[in-house]
Amino acid sequence: MVVNPGKADEVAAKAAELGAKGFEVGFIPQSTDILASTKLIDANKESTVEFVAPKTPGDYPYVCTFPGHHILMRGIFKVR
User: Fold this and answer.
1) Sheet with 34-36, edge to edge strand ranges
2) What average pLDDT does the segment 35-57 reach?
3) pLDDT tens digits for 3-22?
4) Do 57 and 80 form a contact (C-beta atoms < 8 A)?
5) pTM of the entire predicted model
6) Across the chain, how many H-helices and E-strands are there?
7) What average pLDDT does the chain have?
8) What's the rounded Cα separation, in Å, for the pair 80 and 69?
9) Fewest CB atoms within 10 A around its CB: which of 31, 32, 59, 70?
């Protein structure tokens, strides 16, 4: 999912707090910091997400919120 700058770890922590309920909501926690997301994607599969980029320039992190994945599965979506 793409989140507001500086919010990747906070959103990932909220997803982890969902526990087993996370599977019901695709480990997408309730947060106004989430700008775009996809459903859970199985290993070796892919997905596409389309969204309107933020108007404010900056570095917007994207992160996997499946528990434990956020440490390595992340990157930066740059808006110029």
Assistant:
1) 34-36, 2-3, 58-63, 74-79
2) 92
3) 999 999 999 999 999 999 99
4) yes
5) 0.88
6) 1, 4
7) 95
8) 28
9) 32
